[in-house]
Specification:
The chain is an alpha/beta fold. The chain is built from 13 helices and 8 strands.
Amino acid sequence: MNNRTLKKFNLKDGTYIRYEKKGIGPTLILLHTFRNRLEYSDLLIPQLEKSFTVFTIDLPGFGESPINNKTEYDQSFFTNTIVEFIHELDLDEITIAGESIGGVLPLTVAYQLPKKIKKIYCFNPYDYDGKFAEGIRRGNFFANFILFNVGIPILGRLFASLENRFILKNVLKGGFVDYSKLSTDYLNLLISSTKKKGYVYHFRNVLANFKTWNDCKEIYDSLNHPISLIYGESDWSSKKEREDSQKRLKLDSYITLKNCGHFSFLEKPLEVSKIILENR
């Protein structure tokens, strides 16, 4: 994760997002999950950069990208950020793949830019919360306890500010089958983000806007792009929720990654890369 060349893309709210470009070939944009950062895709790059020009980005407010405490971090803000990024860099014939909230964004971006998106990969799309952090809370008892308290009005801000390495590690473990795939180096990188100005606001605001991620399912059946839908066998989503997204996307089936949880880019990077390469 060292010795890398990162660039900044300025946003209309006065902040920016970091991004990195590697490889050669047609454009591939990789999008991370909630609470992660552009380095989330690092394990995929060695397999993909020989076939694609790969762009990895910090979604707004994540990683080392700054936070604006007046910005509403809902689905439309994230979508518009990617749309503006694509326009500004004059990208075309794009393959876009992401996980969790990053697995919903390929669909909302394609809805706005139907002629620019060539292929879509949705890994463990996070489009089913009926309450604050419902999916994350399914991971384990610890995650349920922590996120329940983070969601409480007023008191939740204090609870979120207490996040430390122990808390983050045990919440994230709820998204893995093999805990060893959450490396110490990467966990330390995630913890460094908690020191940013506005971290607590951003953390709670993204989760408080859960309804905006559910509502976007209304556009699913209007998309006519080639779409691959992929779930970890032990992802937080239920069978019914998976089948609902499959039906709305007009797909005959979805792919299941065996012995995998919610964070497939970390837990099954070779399998994820293979899916993208074989179905392009």
